[in-house]
Input
Amino acid sequence: MDDEKSLKKALKEEKGKLKDMSFKDKLWYIGEYYKFHIIFVIVAVIIIVSVITTVRENSKDEILNVVILNENVTLDTDALKEDFGQFIGFDSNSQRMFFDSSMYLNPDGSITDESAMAYQAKLVAMVAAKQLDVMIAPESLINMYSRDMGFMDLEEALPDELFQKLTDEDRIITAKDADGNTYAAAIDIGGTRITETAGFSNEHPYFSILINSGNLETVLQFLTYAFES
Output
């Protein structure tokens, strides 16, 4: 009871102080004496919003995760995501897709600086965690990662009609797996809807499907989208 009376008295006194002040003085007074309270409230709101956003995003179904290596910084992955999303009827409220074009690796796979080391570690971690479905990269990197990470054999993964179409168009390239076996590892997607929409600088980027991809249905939709006339 005494605490309640003390609080009411303090509030009354503060109200009295503010009553006789000009608007400018009120702003100064509140900022000077309540700045830590204000900062605390702002930080608390930011944390709450961040937690809610994270929980909401993590609850969405991840349907596609694509990494694009050694492309220019002007690559428009947002336009690609939006256009492909419209093609498949993407629902942003319940689904999510990722297109990461931030990584650049030496064509021979050598580690010459900290950035290359960090990108290499990031790729390995994504594959190990089964968080990567598609790699789009120059042929030299496809050849290297076909041994180190492993891609699906496209002759087995793709519908027969699509594989034959891409073979007839001379878009399929082979590579060797970790055991030295040759297989259909990647597709030349140069001049397709993917490269035209995003604005690729590489004329012949190659599309490979990670061997442990968990979203093959969406990957095949992505390929259908690429060659849609």
